[in-house]
Amino acid sequence: MITPILQTTVFVRSADRTQVLLMHRNKWSQDIHFGKYLSLGGHVEPDEDILTCARREVYEESGLTATDLTLRGTVMWTGFGHDRINALCFIFRADVFAGTPHNGNEEGTLEWVPMDELDGRPMWESDRLWLPMVFDTNTKPFYGVMPYDGHEMLSWSFQR
User: Fold this and answer.
1) Pick from 31, 29, 36, 34: which is nearest to 113 by CA?
2) What is the pLDDT of residues 86-123, one digit of tens each?
């Protein structure tokens, strides 16, 4: 049995659906994600549900208020990183938001990335396996599991 850390991640799309707001983790060289592009998100706090967490993280990391979040899927990572954490991540897409994003935070800078340029940005190679399902037209969420051995992905499977 595992007791995963609960996380949320949110992909905020521009109003015209041609760009996605990502955090370029470029400010702390000891960051496990250093140099990579990630969506907005983080850990669920003890007093919040996953939707509240997702909205809070979007606001904290970008200054935006996500007014329409759609659960696109979940990914369970096991044995990840040097601490070999287990994490269950709830993956959302935000198609409607209010406000103007700031420049970033202590982890990195925010950048609107054209959807057709996502493949050219540095990110976890394993993210490329499930990322297309965040933006596809299938309305059913996906449920994936991705075991790791430290920094090496061992396998990937999902159901929809």
Assistant:
1) 36
2) 999 999 999 999 999 998 887 899 999 999 999 999 99
For residue 133, the one-letter residue type is: M
Q: Is the dihedral of CA 82, 83, 88, 94 positive or negative?
A: negative
Find all residues with CB under 8 Å of 136, minimum gap 6, and list them: none
End-to-end CA distance of the chain: 23
> Tens of pLDDT along 47-57?
999 999 999 99
Whether pTM exceeds 0.85: yes
Euclidean distance between CA atoms 158 and 160, whole angstroms: 7
Q: Kindly provide the b/e burial profile for residues 37-48, where b requires at least 16 CB atoms within 10 angstroms of the residue's own CB.
A: bbbbbbebeeee
Q: How far apart are CA 40 and CA 69, in angstroms?
A: 13
